[in-house]
Amino acid sequence: MNLSFDIYFEATKKHFADLYSLYGPLLFVLNLVRKSESTKREQHLTEGYQQAIDAVNKSLPKDLKIVYYHQDMKALLKRDKEEFLTLTNSFAHISISKTDFFSAQLLPKEKDKKPIILTFQKGVVRSNCVDCLDRTNTFQQLVGEAALSLQVINFYLITNSNHFRSQRSMKIKIQRLNHHHY
User: Fold this and answer.
1) Strands, E, within the chain: which ranges?
2) pTM score over 0.90
3) Which of 22, 51, 88, 171 is surrounded by the most beta carbons within 10 Å?
């Protein structure tokens, strides 16, 4: 791959700087592009993307480094669909639990007052693929489900705190529901 046109990855650095400014200090990246092929096509992109992320991370302080994870989705699905779901679900849940989401609460008797901010989104989960919306959409659906499960946990903890004794027990219940879905 010839990267001589942007050997310092300035465009890549600008892209991730934009993500930081829009979403906060935590960036999780999942690369779904093939890692090895008999005829290198996607593999070149995977190697270049890894180099770009490494270059960006070299210029960042430790607490702002991009969390990069590569998963050759096509190869993994061919080998073991359950392993794919386990690994991808884990990455989605971990990244969403770290980046969090925005939530606010209006107290029922105080409708004229401003909502109480409960949580702020502190980052974003980015996926990367080539000419394949199936791979990207599959992963983004898992991210959406992870976010929704955490929002449901948050909602129940706020509105029904006596019903669920701990956030951990609710997370386990949501994870069990997610596993039955697949």
Assistant:
1) 26-31, 67-70, 103-105, 116-119, 123-128
2) no
3) 88
| Confidence band, pLDDT 50/70/90 cuts, at residue 166 | very low
Whole-number pLDDT of residue 160: 56
Q: Contact 24/17 with Cβ under 8 angstroms?
A: no
CA distance 136 to 172: 26
Report d(CA 45, CA 34) in Å as an integer.
9
Residue keyed to tokens 């949501």: 174
Closest to 27 in 3D by CA, of 120, 102, 126, 93 = 126
Q: Cα(first)–Cα(last) distance of the chain, in Å?
A: 38
Q: Which of 138, 137, 139 is nearest to 95 (CA)?
A: 139
Q: Where are the domains of the chain?
A: 4-181
pLDDT at residue 149 in the model: 87
Residue with tokens 């992109």: 45
SS3 15: helix
Q: What whole-number distance in Å separates Cα of residue 68 and Cα of residue 79?
A: 22
| pLDDT tops 80 at residue 94 | yes
Beta sheet of 67-70, edge-to-edge order? 67-70, 26-31, 123-128
pLDDT band for position 56 (cuts 50, 70, 90)? very high
Residue found under tokens 């925005």:
102
Question: Which string of DSSP letters, residue by residue, matches 58-88?
Answer: HTS-GGG--EEEE--HHHHHHH-HHHHHHHH
